[in-house]
Amino acid sequence: MTTNFSKTPSYDLLHSLTFCVFDLETxxxxxxxDKIIEIxxxxxxxxxIVDQKSFLINPEVHIPEFIQKLTTIKDTDVADAPVxxxxxxxxLEFMGDSILVAHNTSFDVPFFNSVLKRLGKPELQNxxxxxxxxxxxxxxxxxxSNLNYMSKIFDLKHQKAHRALDDTMASAELLLKYLxxxxxxxxxxxxxxxxxxxxxxxxxxxxxxxxxxxxxLEQINSLTTPxxxxxxxxxxxxxxxxxxxxxxDEKAYIIEKVKKIPYEMLTLKLTGPYFQGLLEMxxxxxxxxxxxxxxxxxxxxxxxxxxxxxxDLQHPQEMPADFIVVNHLIPEQYVIYPLRALHQxxxxxxxxxxxxxxxxxxxxxxxxxxxxxxMKKDHLNPMINNFLIAYLKGSRDTLLxxxxxxxITNQDLKDPIEKFMSENPNDYDFPHKYL
Length: 435
Description:
Blueprint: H1 9-15, E1 18-26, E2 36-45, E3 48-56, H2 65-71, H3 75-78, H4 84-95, E4 99-102, H5 105-118, E5 128-130, H6 131-138, H7 147-153, H8 164-184, H9 191-194, E6 204-208, H10 213-222, E7 227-232, E8 238-244, H11 248-260, E9 265-270, H12 274-285, H13 290-303, E10 323-327, E11 334-338, E12 348-350, H14 356-371, H15 382-394, E13 399-401, H16 410-423
Parallel strand pairs: 1-4, 4-5
Antiparallel strand pairs: 1-2, 2-3, 6-9, 7-8, 7-9, 10-11, 10-13, 11-12
C-alpha cells in the first residue's frame, strides 16, 4: 500500500521511522501455558509497506475447538508447520530494531516476550505502538475499536479476521492512515505517536490567536456537515459560540465574528447532529454577554426558520418529551439524553441493537429518578431552553421518547428506534472527513 503524503517537516519526521506491524494467533490468552499458532509481520519503511512475512507454528498441543472456529486454523493445518524454536531467529531478524505495532500491544508484546523468556532469549527492547489505543485517543467516544470495525469505517481491506497476516495487513493500513493524519495535523514530536491525546483528535482542532486567519477561514468554509465554533479569551473565558449546519449563511455570520472578536483560542468541532452543537453551545451560553445572548438566539431562529417572536425569551417552557435520541458523529452509534435534565454528563452513547438492554435500563432508571424528583434539572437559560423547544418541534433528525407509567421494554422501543434509524442515516462521513 502506498499513501500520498505531502512533504513537510512532519513528513520528514515520520518518513525516517521503520515499523514492524505484527499479530499473533494463539491457543489462548495464558502467557504461561498457551502457544503461538500463527504470526504475521509487515514492515513499513519510508511510509510504505515494503515487506511481509508469516508463519504457521506447530504448538505441539491440541488447538482448542473455539480457537479453531475463531481462526479457522485446525490441528491438521499446523501438523507439518515448524515449531517456534526453528523460526524464532528469523522472526526476530524481521523485527530488528523497528518500532513494533499491533492492534493490541498489551496482549501481543507480553505474550511474545513470554515465549522469548521460555526459549532463554532476551525480551524485546523495541518501542511499541498500539493502534487500538491510538484509535481511542484520536476518535473520542468510540464504542468499538476492534479491527473489523476500524477496517469498515476507514475502508481498509480486511478479508480474514483472526488470521495473523490479514489482521497485520489491516493494522498496517490503519497505521498508515493515522500517520497521514499526523502529517496533516503537523506532528512535531515522535513521542506524540505513543500518546496522541488532546492534540490529534479527529473531531476537533484548536487554533491559537497567532495562527494565520486565512487558513482558519478556509477550514470553516470547507465544512459541509454540522460543526461548532467557540472563541475563548484569556483564562478560557468564553466569548462566542455558535453551531452550524454547514450552510453558507451561518458560515458568513461565524466568520464575521471570528474577524471581529479578539480571541486567544478558536476551537472547531464536528458535532454530528446539529442538536449536539446546540447542546454544547448551551453550556457556554450563560457565559457570554447579555447583548450577545439575545443576538445569538435571534440568529439561531433566523438560521432555522423560526419566528423569534414565538420564542418566549423570559419564561422557561416545558420540554415536549422526556428523552431525545440522535445520531452520533461516529458511524453506527447513537446518543440519548433526558430532556428534563439536559446535560452532556447525563448522555448515554449506544449502538443498536447491541446495547438495547442497556438503553432500556437507562430510560427506566432515569424515568424512576424523574418520578421520584431525584433528578436535578439542568437550569438552562430560558432563552436557549425555549429556542431548543421550538427547534425540536420542527426537527426531523431527532427521536423524542415520552416516559411511560410502566417500565419500557425492548419491544416498546424496537419500532420507533428502527424507524428513526432508517429515516436518519449517518451521512457525516466521519472519520473520513476530519478536522
